[in-house]
Amino acid sequence: MTFKEEEFVVLVDKQGKRYLRRLRKGGRFHSHRGYIEHARIIGSPPGSVIASSTGEEFCVFHPTLIDYTMKMPRKSGIIYPKDTGIILVWADLFPGAEVLLGGVGTGALLLAVVRQVGPRGRIVAYDVREDMLECAARNVRNCLGETPNLTLRLGSVYEAIEERGFQRALLDVPEPWKAIDPICEALLPGGIVCAYLPSITQADAFVSALKERGSFTLIETMEVLLRDWHLTGRSVRPSHRMVGHTGFLIFARKINRQF
Which domain holds residue 53? Predict the structure, then answer.
């Protein structure tokens, strides 16, 4: 499959720096390492190595989800891929799952959820800011195309949620304890709720509220730390910089008492 006009590509220079661009007729990619006409990329296969006007080589690929997430337009902070990966696995998102999101932001987590559940799934995402919903919708459309199984709603998950029958609920809101009752009503028994929170005081408040509510069990709290390694000849060491704390993740499972 070759690159086509209007597709996104990622160009990677010899230092590993990545540039996300949409291919346009008559377009030109510029960097401090020279420029490349888009026409030279269009029709080429992924993995092509193309020299710029200064002779610098760039590898050109279809962007991965991480490439797009880290380079897409933002109106807020994002949930980073290291946390998204854990959320997808610990919350057990699967093709065909019905998922409720509280707090959409720029749409980083939303992108991963839409792709993970696939066209047979159902996603309903709430946010209190219309501009965030519009930004997230553009990012999803640019990355994944049309997604008729995604519904974006202007509103708060602290209040009544009109939809029901969700198997998973993912929260990126500042006070998720206020959403416990609405989420409990919308979530099926056995369903999983996950909250992403920047501070340990927020995490503690949410866990305490879950325990007090008595409708959730298997409550887990964790943070994800990611460290790269530098491997060049005899130089084998961890990188001097690492992706440390970004947020805490809390997972819990809804139970259905029979007495």
Answer: 8-63
In whole angstroms, what is the distance from residue 237 CA to residue 11 CA? Answer: 27
Q: How many CA atoms lie within 13 A of 160 on its CB side?
A: 1
Domain assignment present for residue 259? The answer is: no
Asked, for residue 225, whether it belongs to a domain, the answer is: yes
Q: Is 168 in a helix, a strand, or coil?
A: strand
Per the listing, tokens 């707090």 go with 103
23, 115: one domain: no
Q: How far is CA 192 from CA 10, 148, 213, 215, in A?
A: 35, 24, 15, 11
Average pLDDT for residues 245-259, to the nearest whole number?
90
Q: Which CATH number characterizes residue 152's domain? A: 3.40.50.150
Residue 206 CA, chain-centre distance (Å), reads 22
Regarding beta strands 28-31 and 18-22, do their DSSP bridges make them parallel or antiparallel, or are they unpaired? unpaired
Neighbouring residues of 150: CB distance < 8 A, sequence distance ≥ 6 = 110, 114, 123, 125, 140
Q: Is the pLDDT of residue 242 over 90?
A: no
Q: Decide if 107 contacts 140 (C-beta within 8 A).
A: yes
How many domains are there within the chain? 2
pLDDT per position as a tens digit, 50-71: 999 999 999 999 999 999 999 9
In 3D space, the residue among 122, 232, 118 whose CA is nearest the CA of residue 168 turns out to be: 122
194 and 78 co-located in one domain: yes
Is 1 part of a structural domain of the chain? no
